[in-house]
Specification:
Strand content: 15-25%
Number of helices: 9
CATH topology: Rossmann fold
Shape: globular
Number of domains: 1
Distance between the termini: 31 Å
CATH superfamily: Vaccinia Virus protein VP39
Structural class: alpha/beta
Radius of gyration: 17 Å
Low-confidence stretches: 2-9
Helix content: 25-40%
Oligomer: single chain
CATH class: Alpha Beta
Number of strands: 9
CATH architecture: 3-Layer(aba) Sandwich
Length: about 250
């Protein structure tokens, strides 16, 4: 997720890192994005509690991993992220919760995995794949290629769930979505300008660059074409959505 930083803040960061200081992420993203925790909770609830092998693409500070490990007692998570500092932060969080034996952080670009899966030996036959606030940094061609690779890496009844910002359906709705985020920040006792003052300057990294949003309809079409039989949108709030589905019919 990108936001326009204060001009005085020129620290270069990877797309998805958002904040110049990693320690600002967990609090800052909750001020920047409406109902962030609710969105992640939906992803977690969409996973079968019996899931054993789960792949996370762009794990950030480990918030989704932690929710999954709390809910799925037999799950082991393989978490990819190209940011060393995010992985370090996530590892510390997972270790503090006592889940270090059920979590593996891998420094890798999931776009590279989609384009050259043989270069990253993470296996396949995953029960589920999840991602949050990461895939929208890929262009549409790479999004589709990634969805195909995810489908190829899941078991026959596997599922994939993604939480991401979506392209507004019209200029009018773009203004509505913007106003909703302004109101949300105000409810947290902040203004978006105050939150964005902590944001770094995003630079292209690997296959990812600044926001390359696609519409919800485009995502659904891509997922269907990639082989997902049951496609759903279990949650949407203004310009944010959780979408995905299963490789079989439920």
């Amino acid at each position: 997720m990108d936001a326009k930083p204060d001009a005085s803040n020129m620290q270069k960061i990877f797309p998805g890192e958002v904040f110049a200081n990693t320690a600002d992420f967990d609090a800052g993203i909750r001020q920047l994005l409406p109902r962030y925790d609710e969105m992640l909770e939906v992803i977690t609830r969409c996973l079968p509690s019996t899931s054993r092998r789960i792949l996370e693409l762009g794990c950030g500070t480990g918030e989704v991993s932690l929710k999954i490990l709390n809910r799925c007692p037999d799950a082991e998570v393989v978490a990819l992220d190209y940011s060393p500092r995010m992985l370090q932060f996530a590892q510390a969080k997972i270790t503090a919760a006592g889940y270090q034996n059920r979590w593996s952080g891998v420094e890798a670009d999931f776009g590279d995995w989609a384009d050259n899966p043989e270069k990253l030996n993470i296996g396949s036959e995953f029960d589920a794949c999840v991602s949050s606030l990461a895939i929208h940094h890929l262009n549409d061609e790479m999004k589709f290629k990634l969805f195909q690779q995810i489908a190829a890496s899941l078991i026959s009844s596997g599922c994939f769930w993604n939480a991401d910002p979506i392209l507004p359906e019209s200029p009018v709705l773009a203004e509505v979505y913007k106003a909703a985020r302004e109101d949300w920040a105000a409810q947290q006792g902040k203004t978006l300008a105050e939150v964005r003052a902590k944001v770094g300057t995003s630079v292209t990294q690997g296959y990812s660059s600044q926001d390359q949003l696609a519409s919800l309809d485009t995502h659904i079409q891509m997922l269907t074409k990639a082989g997902f039989v049951t496609v759903a949108v279990p949650w949407k709030y203004y310009g944010l959505a959780v979408f995905g589905g299963w490789l079989c019919r439920f």
